[in-house]
UniProtKB/TrEMBL annotation, chains A, B:
CDD domains: HTH_LacI (cd01392). One of its GO terms (molecular function) is DNA binding. This is LacI family DNA-binding transcriptional regulator. The keyword Phosphoprotein does not apply. It comes from the Bacteria. The lineage of its organism: Bacteria, Bacillati, Actinomycetota, Actinomycetes, Micrococcales. PROSITE patterns: HTH_LACI_1, HTH_LACI_2. Gene3D superfamilies: 3.40.50.2300, lambda repressor-like DNA-binding domains. The keyword Secreted does not apply. SUPFAM superfamilies: lambda repressor-like DNA-binding domains, Periplasmic binding protein-like I. Pfam families: LacI, Peripla_BP_3. It comes from Myceligenerans crystallogenes. Keywords: DNA-binding, Transcription, Transcription regulation. Residues 2-56 form the HTH lacI-type domain.
Amino acid sequence: MATIGDVARLAGVSRSTVSYALSGKRAISDQARARVEAAVAELGYTPNAGARALATSQTMVIGLLAEFLEDEFAPAMLQYIQGVSNTAHELGYDILLVTEAEGTRGLKRITDSRMVDGVVLLNVAEDDGRLPVLRAAPQPGALVGLPGDCTGVDVFDLDFEETGRHMLEHLARLGHRELILVSQPEHVELRGGAYVWRLRNAAARAAQARGITLHAVSGASRQPDIGRDLHAALDAHPGATGLILNNEAAAAALPSVMHERGLAAPRDLSVVGRYSAEFASTFSLPYSSVESAPDRLGRMAVRQLVRRIEGEITPDDPYVVRFVSPELVDRGSTGAPPAG
Amino acid sequence: MATIGDVARLAGVSRSTVSYALSGKRAISDQARARVEAAVAELGYTPNAGARALATSQTMVIGLLAEFLEDEFAPAMLQYIQGVSNTAHELGYDILLVTEAEGTRGLKRITDSRMVDGVVLLNVAEDDGRLPVLRAAPQPGALVGLPGDCTGVDVFDLDFEETGRHMLEHLARLGHRELILVSQPEHVELRGGAYVWRLRNAAARAAQARGITLHAVSGASRQPDIGRDLHAALDAHPGATGLILNNEAAAAALPSVMHERGLAAPRDLSVVGRYSAEFASTFSLPYSSVESAPDRLGRMAVRQLVRRIEGEITPDDPYVVRFVSPELVDRGSTGAPPAG
DNA sequence: CTGAAAGCGCTTACAG
DNA sequence: CTGAAAGCGCTTACAG
C-alpha cells in the first residue's frame, strides 16, 4: 500500500503538505493541492488508520457491547444494533462489535487498548458489572437501558414506568376490571433487568388506584415454554379480560395460543404489548403495542456519545438520563371487555 | 494511560525487555520478568492497539460485512453474525461490524485503511459487487454464500442443490405427487441470490425425474404480504399435498395461514422448510426443516480466514469452496398425503 | 540475557 | 504558503 511518503514523493511536496492538503487544516496553494490530489488518485492512497490513531489519539471507532444471553430473545436485540451501527456510520465512525458472554472483559480489553473512542452498552442491568469498568475508562460511554447508578454515563431508555401506567390505564378506560401482566422470566429480573419491575410496579400502582385486579406473572423467553406459560396464566385467571405483555417472546407466541383456545382479540381478550413496529411487522403481530423505539434509542445514544467524544460536551457537562415516552400504536386489539 | 515506557521505568529495565517479557519472544531472567509483571500490574498496563498494529501490521480485527437489506428477513441474519463473532473472539480477534447499505464502500474503507486483517462477507450474491474490491485488497476474505466467481476467496455455503433434491425426494418417498415450492421474493433472486434458483432447479429436476408436479412460486419476505402469498399459492394449487419452504418469512407466517385455513400438518399438508434449529425455536415453528447451519458456516468461514491471516495457509494454497450437506431435522410435519 | 536504536505511518507544532 | 523534525507507543533486528 502507498504511504503518505509515496504520495509526497510523487507530488513533489513534503509529507506535511500532503497531510494538510488532505485534512484542510492549513492553507495550501492551488498548485500543490492539485499535485497532491493527482498523486493520491494515481496511487489509490488511503491513510493508515492505525498510524493516524497513534498520532491523533482518535480511532474513529465506537465499541458496541451486545451480549446475546442464552435466555433472551435475540431478534429483539438486532434492532438496537442496527440503530447504533447506522447512526455511527452516518457520523463517520465504525463499530467494534463485542458479543462475548463476559462483557466486562471485552469492555476492559477494547478500552484499555484504546481500540475505541467511546462505548455503547446495550441491555444494561440494574447493577451492571460493566459500569465500574466503563467509569474507570478514559473513553465516554452511553447506555441503552437504565442502571441503578447513572453517574458518569449518558443513559437512554424507554420510560417503563410511564409505559406500565399507560398500558393499564388504556385498558381501564375501556372498562376492564381484571388483567394479566406477563413479564420477562424471573432470572432476567434477578440478573438486573430493572425494566421488568419498573413497568410492573407502575402498572400495579395504577391498578390499585383504580380498583383493578392485576395478576402479574412471569413468562419464559423461549418457545415452547412461553406458550405453556401463557396457557397457564389464562387458565389460572379465567376472569381476566385483558392481557399486558412486557415480553417479546410472549407476544410472538400469543397468536398460536389464542388460536388454540379459540380466542380472538379484542372480542374475547384485549391485548397490548411492548415492542417495536419493526418487530410487529417481522412477527406479524396483530396487537396494539407501546413502541419500544430501539432504533431511536440507539440513535440517541450514539449522537450523545459522539458529542462527548468530539469534545462538544465535556465531563463537566451534566450527564443525561433521557426517557423516551411510550407511544401506543393502535392495531385494534383492545376494546371493551366481553359482556357478562 | 501507562505506556511501555512507564512500565520499563518502574521495573528498572529497558522497553524492549518489557516487550519481550510480555510476548515471550525471547528469554528473560526470572528477576526481570518478576519486576516487569509487578510493574504491569501496578500500572494496569495494556499495550496500545494502534501502536502495536503500526509496528506489527496486524490489527487482530476481522471485518464483518452484513448488509441489512430492506427486503430481507433480518432475524435470519443474526445467527450468522453470532457465529462469526463468537468464533473470532475465541481465536483472539475482534469484530469490526459494517452494516452500511453500500457494502462496497465500507469494505474499501476498512481494507484500504488497514483497519482489519481479513474480512468475512455475509449474504453474498451471484455477482457480488464487493468481490472485486475484496480481491484487490491485501487482506484475505471468506464468504458465507456462493458467488458466481470464487477465485481468490474461501467460500462456505449450504449445499442448496442437494437441499432442493433432498426436500423433494423426502416428500416423494412419502407418496406426494403434487408439491408447492415457496421461494424468496423475485427481487432477492434478481439481486443475485443464487441459492434461490439453485435450490429450485435442483428440486425441479428431481421432480421431473420422478414424474412429480412442482409448482414453484415466490413469496414476499415480510408480513403481511407473505401471508397473502401463501394463501394465494394454496388457492391456486388445491391438489398440492406438500409444501417446500425456502423462505424464512414464509415459515414464520405459515402457522397462522394454516390455522386460518383449518389445515394441520401433516394431516392435510406435509411441510418442510429450510432454516436453523435456533430459528425454529425462536419462532416456535413445528415444521421439519433442513438445517441451514448459520453458526457452523460462520465458524468455518472465520476459522479458514484466520488460517490465511496467520500465514498457516498462503495465497498459493488453493482456495476452498466448502458446502455443508443438508440435514433434515424431523419435527413430524411430513407424512403420507391425505387419502383421496 | 539485555539495551539502544530504528522503524511502522501518520499529525502537528515550529521555523521560515 | 511550505518543509524539516518531533512524537504518538509499540516491535524487533542489531550489537553486546
